[in-house]
Amino acid sequence: MAIEDKHISYRIYLVAFSIFLMAMAITFKLSKIQWVEGDYYRKLAKERTVKNFVIPANKGNIYSADGSLLATSIPNYNIRFDAVAPKGESFEKNVKPLSDSLALLLGKPSSYYQTQLRMARANKNRYLFVARDLSYTEYMRMKSFPLFNLGPNKGGMITEQETIRKHPIGKIAERTIGYERITPEGKPDGKGIEWSFRSYLNGKDGKVLKQKIAKGQWKPIRDVNEVDPQDGYDVISTIDVYIQDIAHHALLKQLQEYKAEHGCVVVMETKTGKIKAISNLGKLNPTDSTYFETTNYAIAEAHEPGSTFKLIDMIALLDDHKIDTSKTYDSQGGIIEYRGKKVRDSHEGGYGRISLARGFEVSSNTIMVQAVYENYKNNPQEFVDRIDRMGLNKPLGLPFQGEGKPYIPQPNDKHWSAISLPWMAFGYGVAVTPLQTLTLYNAIANNGEMVKPQFVSEIKEWNKTIKKYDKQVINPKICSDETIKKLKAVMQNVVKRGTGAKLYSKDFSMAGKTGTAQANYAKNGGSEKHYISSFVGFFPAENPKYSCIVVVHKPNTSGNNYYGADVAGPVFKRIAQKIFTDAPSTNEIKNLNRKIDKQEKAYNDYAIKSQEETKGVPNVKGMSGMDAVALLENLKYKVKVIGVGKVKKQSIQPGEAIDKNKIIILELS
Predict the structure, then answer these.
(1) Which of 101, 246, 262, 500 could form a disulfide with 495 if both were Cys (CB 3.0 to 4.6 A apart)?
(2) Rounded to whole angstroms, how far apart are CA atoms 357 and 178?
């Protein structure tokens, strides 16, 4: 018995000693956590419950030359409710008026909202969903509602903001206006003005401190930001909305009529190089009948220009004093041969013996090739140097990524051959972008001064200029005044009595050059022949104000009307005709001081005021179409636009209350 008691005592001592050791270990660990590792764990706990979140800065707007919106950021708001935040007395006093206000704004019965709010209070729900996708106008109204007007800490209103980028002008010029995005791989990417000028547009993000609450949700700790965001600047483009609309629809009509694959049109202001319109339309697949702005063909696509390149021949021959426009050549039945390769005229049988000027007017390949080959065959480098001095051997250096790379063969290249020079003379074996060709023709219209195409004229903050983009001169004089005078004359004759005679109008003068290039693409081991039709020139011919290029790829050849004068020329004429018969003067930027740095100043001050005054649809008469669309869409109305310019009529009268799903039709002047 004594031995058994002794064993029990040992066990008790052992257990007690083990408990003592465990207590010491726990005490040691607690002491270590408290005094040695305390700062680390306190920091870790804070990081997991309190965190800084980014507040995106309001992105600047992109405007047209006349002050119409081309791209803007519209804020959307999601609202939640922290039912624990308000005091009991405050909650009971305001829950009924708040429910009534929510019912008026959101459309559900007041009893529904009162039930939801009381249930959230009883369940201590700190993140009750209230409303989604509110406009700024609706958000400001809700912020003034009973209880919510006490702020997030006392009233419990939690605001989540996101920003959506909108193009009020729609799909027109969409590719040049551009976009900014994050690729699936997580890399920043974009196109056009949005991407190239993002350092000005994006501003600087702010920070807000939030605390983690139930169900993994985060709630702002204070009603002020840790760091306020700095809004981005506005970018003023050179695009003229009226001319852009004309160019877009003229090109679209012709692409549809000829079932073409794709095409582009650019209108440039002669003296400054400002791009007033640029449209790039193509099919997503060959069976489509709908055209989209998917690729900036005018900037990115370098291809054989065909006969529009013959202007280079004329500049070189005349300015190098090789021959005059009166020099005659025999077209030799419309076919000449170089090293077994034939050069043909489009006119069967040729043109007989004609002058160089007439050869240009009728776009004779045989005449132009003979003239160039005869005068430069012993020194082709002289001809190529002339091209290089005009800058056609290198990109224009535009601010956009993806600019096409031109190709001008050099006599010392391994690809140079005996037919390189004659082929260059009628626009083959070389590659330039449509915008490069336009820049060359614009230099002739501008009396020899070659200016760089310009898409942005100014960076602004409110009515303050941050940066101004002045005219950039590529080449102050590409050729002599005497040469320019002769070239203007022969280009007028192209329209009066040459390949562009179908375009002639006694009402307004034009000058230019047709072009039809034949391209061959490999297909199923063979080759597929198709045509590139183009027209480039300027108007009015006597005192050019605008230059323009139209290029159409793969027009339908079933009617044998695939030449530049038939396909591209009518687009050029339509633009010139509309500009000088219908277009109002819209060359100055107006009312830009109405754009304020925060979104509530972009449209929404006007929207709030207009809705408060009218208690319904705002009055948008007299506003530019772009701004009216942006305003109404921001108020959640659906809009359809007819015409271009300013609003002269709206289908729903100001002050009338309508269903948000009903379409408002705007007629523009």
Answers:
(1) 500
(2) 42
Q: Please give the distance of CA 180 from its chain centroid, rounded to a whole number.
A: 9
Candidates 178, 557, 95; CA nearest to 401 is 178
**Angle, in degrees to the nearest 10, between helices 136-143 and 605-614:** 70
In eight-state DSSP terms, residue 506 is S
Provide the token pair at 627: 């701004």
| DSSP result, 427-449 | T-S-BB-HHHHHHHHHHHHTTT-
Distance from the first to the final alpha carbon of the chain:
116
Mean pLDDT on 445-471? 94
Long-range contacts, stretch 494-497, CB < 8 angstroms, 24+ apart: 494/360, 494/361, 494/363, 494/537, 495/537, 495/541, 497/361
The answer to whether the CB of 241 falls within 8 A of the CB of 267 is no
Quickly count: other Cβ atoms within 10 Å of residue 491's Cβ. Answer: 27
Helices marked H in 326-419 — which ranges?
A: 356-361, 365-376, 380-389
428 φ, ψ to 5°? -120, 155
Q: How far is CA 88 from the centre of its chain?
A: 53
At residue 340, the pLDDT reads 84
Please report, rounded to a whole number, the percentage of residues in the chain having pLDDT higher than 90: 56
386 three-class SS: helix
